[in-house]
Amino acid sequence: MSRAKGNIAEDRAVAFLYDDGFSIIERNFYSRFGEIDVIAAKDEVLHFVEVKSGEDYELAIQNITPSKLSKFIKTAQVYMKKNSFDGDFQIDALVVTPTSIELVKNITF
């Protein structure tokens, strides 16, 4: 997917989260392990959100592999250490298709 399409999906994702009551803390946080697309907060929980887009849900969600999730978690740990965060958090995925947006909460493998 092109970076332009990825940016559009991320913009839609951020708008969705904002409309759902999330506060957007940061976008595109990088560490040596990888990137977190969106860091948001809601109800005193920090959410690390991986945005995936595709023509349909299945095509998008299958791109979250165990290896990708492992790197994502390491990057979240870097963020929490860098920001001295010691509270509740979860790893979420936001799947963006041309016709829908679905938040998948607390993903694990």
Largest sheet: 5 strands, mixed
The secondary-structure class comes to alpha+beta
The coarse silhouette is: globular
Count of discrete structural domains: 1
Offer a concise description of the structure.
The chain has one domain (3-104): Trna Endonuclease, Chain: A, domain 1, CATH 3.40.1350.10. It has 3 helices and 5 strands.
Describe what you observe in this structure.
Helix content is 36%, strand content 35%. It has a 5-stranded mixed sheet with strand order 1-2-3-4-5, with helices on both faces. The protein has a single domain (3-104), classed as Trna Endonuclease, Chain: A, domain 1. Strand 2 and strand 3 (45-53) form a beta hairpin. By secondary structure, it is of the alpha+beta class. The chain has 3 helices and 5 strands, in the order H-E-E-E-H-H-E-E. It has helices spanning 3-19, 57-61, 66-82; strands spanning 23-30, 35-42, 45-53, 88-96, 101-104.
Helix-strand blueprint:
Blueprint: H1 3-19, E1 23-30, E2 35-42, E3 45-53, H2 57-61, H3 66-82, E4 88-96, E5 101-104
Parallel strand pairs: 3-4
Antiparallel strand pairs: 1-2, 2-3, 4-5
